[in-house]
Amino acid sequence: MKNKGFTLLFSVLIMSIALAITLGFSGFVIRELIVSGLGRESQKALFASDSGMECAIYWDVKYNSFATSTVSNIRCASSDYTVGGISGVSNFTLNFANGTCAVVLVDKVSVYPDTLIESRGRSPCSSGSPNRVERAFQVRY
User: Fold this and answer.
1) Is the pLDDT of residue 1 over 90?
2) What is the pLDDT of residue 91?
3) SS3 for 75?
4) Over the Cα atoms of the chain, what is R_g?
5) Distance between CA atoms of 104 and 93, rounded to whole angstroms?
6) Is the pTM of this model over 0.70?
């Protein structure tokens, strides 16, 4: 008669151990999902930055659109931008359909006779996102 509650106590102990292991494992899985999501956003930001860089280089090398003597219109990511002019510094933001953007700076004055192009890709583009990732490219030629 002394062993009547032993099976119930043993079952509760085994279930407690299984629950602790499950909670520990699920915490690990959640952290890995967060890291995976940041990796995906980082890749999107990198591609956005690359697209902004390629756009600026194309218009500068092919058409000299960022010249300090005249103002020009360029078209990137289905949008038109006015660039160039006396200041020698142009800024524009490319917005992409996947929620990313690239903030592009073309400077023909500070590093004269060189050209400095900086493109910062952001994913997501909205500044209020706690998981926003920014990747940048900078070219000087």
Assistant:
1) no
2) 97
3) strand
4) 27
5) 6
6) yes
**What is residue 21's three-state secondary structure?**
helix
List the structure tokens of 16.
């407690």
DSSP string, 23-62: HHHHHHHHHHHHHHHHHHHHHHHHHHHHHHHHHHHHHHHH
* 18-34 CB burial, b ≥16 within 10 A, e <16: eeeeeeeeeeeeeeeee
For residue 100, pLDDT over 70 is answered with: yes
Specify the pLDDT at position 5.
74
Q: Supply the DSSP symbol for 69.
A: S
CB 120 within 8 A of CB 133: no
**Residue 13 pLDDT:** 94
Q: Which residues pair with 107 in a beta bridge?
A: 89, 116
* DSSP per-residue codes, 87-140: T-EEEEEEE-TTS-EEEEEEESSTTTTS-EEEEEEEES--TT-TT-EEEEEEEE
State in Å, rounded, how far the first CA of the chain is from the last one.
90
Confidence tier at 87 by pLDDT (50, 70, 90): very high
Query: How far apart are alpha carbons 77 and 55 in whole angstroms?
Result: 9
